Amino acid sequence: MSEKKHKYPWNHIIGFVLSIALTFLAAWTALSSDLPVMWIIISIMVLAVIQALIQLFMFMHIVEKGAGDAPWNMMFHAAVVAAIVVSGSLFTMSFGFTHDHGGGEHETEQHEEQGAHEGH
Amino acid sequence: MSENVHNNVPLEYSTDEGQNSIIGFWIFLAAEISLFATLFATYAVLFSRTADAMEPAELFQPGIVLVMTVLLLTSSFTCGLAIHFMRQGSLKGTQILLGITLLLGMTFIGFEIYEFIHYVSEGVTLQSSAYWSAFYILAGTHGIHVMVGIGWMIGIIIQLFQHGLTAFTARKVFIVGLYWHFLDVIWIFIFTGVYLIGMVV
After folding, report:
1. What number is the ipTM of this complex?
2. Which of A64, B151, B172, B180 gives the lowest tally of CB atoms within 10 Å of its CB?
């Protein structure tokens, strides 16, 4: 397993070819496939996450001798925080109050605000 | 420098100082991820709030964005190869590949500046609407990070000429490499979340 034995940087080359292929696959999915928009968004986001993992594991040596547990710990928790920040913001700001759960005063107000925004 | 020398690990990990610096840099990258998470969240919330300005789908061009993505992916690859050559002890190889990475990064920035100038000439600026403010801030913050990376990498190449490959410079090359790969990770999400989704919706 020692680094010196790998004379040829195979995992860099495989990682590079894979990321180029995934980029074009994502572009094709978005621009030329006939999938419904929701499925396009889900599948290209999955492709992006796979590409990010390729970078982390094949290029950034996130797990290797000498590095310890800290790097993947950092990246894993940062990714969780990022997912919560983005999906939480979307949930509260864009989707949170658009459903009518029995017509409370507060919710009606939010509806009017949404309507005003969409009027633009 | 540290008195503890570790064997059986690559040169950049061979001192305690090197190991701690690298772990510290991973902590910095985690903080950078939360910075970009807030910008992505802002962008996602303000999506489609274009007011009277143009829609992104009218303005984004698949060609130039794909070229930029391929440029940055290739630069990430050459930067990874630079670390590979460094671990084989080749100073020349490290310098040449860092130099190629630098050129690819500069070309990327050139395209991004051209892209922004093109958008502004179409009448879409930072002030046009909430959506476009979020777009310019997100893409611009990434662009500034790339520019900082270019300056940093020039400094590291100069230090390689001055000192050759030591535990000290190897650690620096490895860390600038981590930074460069990280910029590529962020760009993947900008490419997907901003450009592709912007062209679809």
Report:
1. 0.88
2. B151
